[in-house]
Amino acid sequence: MTQRAAEFSPAVAARALRPARRRVAGVSVALAAPAAVSLLALGNPHEEVPALLYVLSVLVATTVGGRVAGLVAAAASIVPFYYFFITPYHMWSVKADGALAVAVFAATALLGGEVLARQRGARARAEQEAWSSIEALGTTVRLQRAAESLVSARTPQEVLDAVLVEGAGLAEARSGLIAALSEDGEWLEVLASRGYDTRYVEPFRRIRVDDDLPLSETVRTGEGVFLRSEQERDARYPGLAGRAQPGHGLVAVPLVGESGPIGGLVFSFSEDQEFPPERRALKLALARQAALALERARLSVAEEALRERLSFLDEATALLNSSLDLEQTLERLASLAVSRLADWCAIDVLTEGTNEIDRLIVAHQNPERRRWAEEMRARTGPTRLGEEYDLTARVIRTGEPEFLREVPQALLDEAAERDPEAAEVLREISIRSAIALPLQAGERMLGALMLAAEERSFDDDDFVLAQQLAARAAIAIENARLYGEAERRADAALALAYVGDGVVLLDREGRVRFWNTAAAAITGVRGEDAVGRTPEEILPAWAELTKLAETSDAGAPEPARAVTVPLETPRGDCWVAVTGVGFDEGVVYALRDVTDELALEQARSDFVTTASHELRTPLAAVYGAARTLRRPDLDLGSEQGQRLLEIVENETERLTRIVSQILLAGQLEEGRVDLRTEATHLGSLVESVLAAARLHAPEDVELRLAVEGEAALALADEDKLRQVLVNLLDNAIKYSPDGGEVTVELESRAGRALVTVRDRGLGIPAGEEERVFEKFYRLDPGQTRGIGGSGLGLYISRELVSRMGGSLIVQSRPGEGAAFVVDLPAA
Q: What is the pTM of this model?
């Protein structure tokens, strides 16, 4: 309802109350006015004066109370006028003037009432027309707003939102629900609802079109269902009594698109309703607009899905053409398929001559599931082409695709009974839908592509897309086979002699033709000793090295991905990143020593171990204290209980500090830490940090503050600087296992504010001064001195100080302690 209509309606309602009041007032005037005129009988006026006054009284009463009040006034006037003012006076005899007066008074009442009634009726009709116009305007505005929301919707979900938000308001409803018709036309499924209690929606989330329900009826008949009250609803649809949400009026209207019914809308109201034709037409108009918008959205989604399928095929084609390494290409293809099309993807190849089917690739988005499938593949071995019940064998044997939109449970049970290995597989995974396609190049059968879905069912579009993918995969497999044949006949190309990476050239028989200086440096094998021999003869680890390496075609736009593997050489063990490029006469391998890079990864691994230990210790303490507190067989005193609670509190704080450090390190690395620098009084800040540290410091560690000159003001973020100082003090205390003095020195010079945390502890080995600021680095990773820690404290401290425009350095000698100097700009 528009604002003007909202303002107009109370006025109309107020006028509706006036007739009763006017009738009461009119009767009062009809009695009081003649009585007042009759007082003239006490004097001796001319009879025309009271006659006119009595006529005036009748008109006033008629104006105030209508025709009835006028007639009452006429009756109340004729009696005194007849008795007191018409000769002979004070007599009830027949008088000609009295009859005339009766006629005049009655005519005055009747004509005045008629004129007044017509005037009031005209005004009421005008008001009603005005109200109807304003209401129609408000309805038009709301319908226009709903139409605009529906037109702007681009997806089915946006259409649903527009219908349930704008549509419910337009329909003046409290709640709304929209359901879609299934493809077979037999079911209605609730897509979304608003305002309903979900407890009442769930039992009706999927209903049959032939059910005796309002939504089913409106879709089945194409006519709206309008129920004025809950009583009418339950009487007409007994199946809803006690099951549907309590309410009042209810409307169900069909959603009819260009091709027929596509669903239905339901609106519920907070009060009982009347549904005149205009309200019914409004709701049906809303349903028509919603149906058209939903169809447009579905077409838009279908168009987008088509574009995605074409994009998927383009990506798959580019991937298949990027390399002629068969296994690598098919692995990428399977990974692409499970990310965009199916939950499982398996590629089987037919071995010529043996009629055996080998499962070359199996892929799943979950790495654990994939590893399990690969283990199962290794255990089961190849499948024979002639196996009658095997789906893959049948597809390869017949060359016909198999599309199981819904895999029958009986088929799965039969497979489990026939094959124990299949039974184990089916215990681990659920298969709802499956597609099996032959991989065929011309007349040559290469293998099969298997796709399986665990939760959803494949549709016809998925089947078409899978067929196109299989056709491209077959071409790629055939190209890879042809390439492999041509590769053995090609001449070897020359390799670059002096590059930073090791370069090894093998001919088609696998013998070394080139072994550059970098390769010699990495492997410890001289080129003179390698050329002419197989790599396995001079480097036993070569087989494992090349087994894991990926190779790509020399003309491929993207190089093969480097694989890092350990390598045992005469000079010791190292880590090597290896990649291969195949060409006409052999393969060129590029080797790069990445031992140093992996050291960082090892540091991260050490961090995981340390963090696990650091987290496990307080967790064990908390768990033990909690279990003790919960034991009913122990009668713990208040002192023991408080001690256990202190353990829980202290260890929880320790856990919080560890987790906070890990989170802060990640935020620093991602640049998501905000600092607010301002003038910070270092003296008070350091004193508060020392006071807190003394509460937990060992008794043999003495904490002291030394101030040179006046305490400095630094330009810093006080909270972050406090964290830095806490980290440095914790380190100083931790690396002073034998106790001693830890001093915090404050100094101001040359526009800089310096804070030095000095200890007399273990110190830092020579050459390790900068490494202590690396993430995850710890001086005592094995905790041989019982010194724990995450290896993040100094990394975080330096990063925070750097972001405050300062620096953090360390000065140390082994066994003589260390001094960490925070240098900040003075405020």
A: 0.37
